[in-house]
Structure formats: structure tokens, C-alpha cells
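Q: Got a minute? One more chain.
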Amino acid sequence: MLQNYFTSEKISFADRVQLIAKKSIACACFITACTSGMAQNASKLPSPQQANSTTGNDLAILNYGAVAVENKTKVEAHTWTYVTNPYPFAVSADHIIERNQEVISPTIYIPVAEKDQNSEIDFSAGYTTYNLSGGTTSIGTVEPHKIASNFDKNNAYGILDSRQGFLVQPLQTDDFVLTSAMGTEAYRDDVMWGGKEPKARNRYWVNLTNANGNFSQALMGYFKDATDDIDPGFDGTVFPGAHVTLYSYCNGVKLSIQGQAMPLTNDKYVVFGYNNKVAGMLSLYIPQTELDFNGAMPLLLKDGLLGGFHMIKNAPYYFYSAAGTFNERFEIHYTDGSNRLAGDKNTMEDKVIVAYKEGDNIIVKANNELYTEIEIYDINAKVVKAVRNVKTDFTVITDVPQQNQLLLINVKTTEGKYITKKIIF
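A: Always. Here it is, folded:
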């Protein structure tokens, strides 16, 4: 429950949102100071539902025009503060960060609000992370391994809808300011802004998805004002997800968002790691690219565990993963990899495991190795066939229906390594 600042009346968070929604003209800036405080390197963000609230000044008349309407509220240093956009139109997170750059940390967190069976807004699902590099959504579910449905432009471009809330980290006790001039003309689905796209920059997003559709997202970008070190305005620390968590590295720090300096050259690369809660099939893919990455600049994924390379810009990379944390397993290089791919015919996968179609059967053969388990998945991560409790180097699988589809054959060796092969069957 939240405490009403003016009447001491206890009202639910959902009721407060409804109250603000009714003020379509006279809107309030809704501020929540979280009682748990703020840790500089917090591993978990606080929930706005566990907070005391105060309310900013009501605006008798709100106009979006030549004269900016300003809403100012005092925030306390080192206390997580929850703010709601009070205007009846979308505002730009970039404008908010730039206007308050001396007051708050330049990375903000936008809750993923989903209603539960009691119509309460549930913030336990997590947060979208946003700073001057852009935004990532690391919480949610999608249909397993569906690429196009897994990119939210509003979150990626920092578009905060009317009454959308977000968490900020005040660096000092001072005035936090919102103005109607922060209204954005960026991408909108409605007719208010005419569908104008934000300015593209040199960046790309990477998604990690499990078989149940749970996903985590990381953003990599290159900007003229960024450096190759940690920049508060361009780098955002990762917070653990409930199922999978993807992050890049900069000087040993795990980041959900990373911005590096221009120029963008082919010799640069980025290191990625991940955490996986449940063993199973995972996929890495690129849901969105911009500028040079949208053109000729290639994206070559290196799997440090299996030793192979994959053109991830062209197709998803599927792999089996045990539960656990796998730091620095992957690298993304900005080269076409022609020399590497040409010399990569004898990767560990190709040396150890061979899988192929022979008539109506699938053959799985190991070279100089034994394996103990085979699992065959379709593109939706459904188990089509499993062979377990064996110790062999040769298996003929006879009862898999032929549907001319992509199958992923995951093999566990006697050394405990998982190797994934692909065939059309």
C-alpha cells in the first residue's frame, strides 16, 4: 500500500494510477521514495509497491505548445525514486536524463507493469534499462525463438507514455524537473506524432532466449561522446533476470547497455556472458541493427566453449546450455570472418560429432570420442527424440518423422561437453 501525502489515506498503487489517469488535463508528477534506500552496486532493484509516496504540484491547466509547463519535485540523495510522466502525451527519456544530469544517475529503470488477477500492477517482473545509448528489455516472454516479435521500439528509444513510471537514482538532494518541452516526436503507434522514427545510431541489440520464451537483451553502441572505459551516461549495469541474463563486459563490469567510442572499425569486438537458471536449448540472435550495422558491417559470433564461428546477423545461433553462469563465453567480431570460417572446418564440433541424414534415418557419429546422450529438438525447442543412458560412438535413429524441417541434435559427450549439430530432416 502507498501513503497518500495529503490525506494520509491508504490507497493501492493501482488506485493511484487510476486517479492520475482521471486527471487528463490536471496531471500530477507522481514521486515515490523507496524506503529500502539505494546501493551503488545494488543487485536487485526495489519495488515501487514497497514505498511511501509523495505527490508533486498539481497543474491546473496543462498545455503542450510554445510555453513549457514545468513540474518540479525535490528528490533525496541515494534513495531510489519512482517518477510518473504526468503529461497526457509521451516524453523522451533522453530529454529527462539530459535535463537532470547533475541530479540523477543517467541510467533509469522502467518497470514492466503487468496486472495480476487482483488488477494490481505487478513490478516483480523486472525493469527495462535505459540511458543515452538506448534501452534494453531484459524481462518478459515471447514465442520461443521468434525474432521479429522480440524488439520493443518504445523501450529501445526511450519513449515514456503518459502515466508511464520509471525509477531514478538521485546523486544529490535537489529538484528533479519534468517539463512539457520533453514531449517526444519520436516513433509512436498513434497518430499524435505521425510515426516519425528517431535518429539512427551505430548500435545493435542481442537477445538470449530459452525454450519457454524467457529472454534477456543486451545493447551495444558506438558514439562520438563515449569512451572505451565505463561511462555512466552510456553504460548500464545489468540486473539479474528470473530465467536468463545476458550481458557484455567492459573492464570486468557486467553491462546490459554498453557504449564505446567512435570510430567503428573491423578490428573491434565485444565479450558477452550469460546466466541460465534451467538447463536446455538457448538461442542468441540480433533483433535490431542501425546505421553501419544495418549495412555492410558484419557481426561474427565466436563460441569460446565450442570454438566455432557463426554469422549471427544472418541467422540465430542455437546451443544447449547447462544451468549456471558462463562468463566471457561469447565474442562478437565486426569482420566477415572469411579467413576464420575458411580455417574453421576442423572446429571441435566437426572433429568430435557428425550428424547426417541417411535414407529414412538420422546418423550420429563420434570421432575419437564417446557420448552418453542425444536429444533432438525442432525449431520451437520441442524434444522430438531422446536417446539416453548410452556409451557409444555410433547411433542410428529410425523413428523421427521426416518433415523437411531444421532439427537441432544435442549430444552430451562422456566428458560432459554438449555439442549441437543441425540437419534438415
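A: The chain has five helices and 33 strands.
Q: Perfect, thanks.
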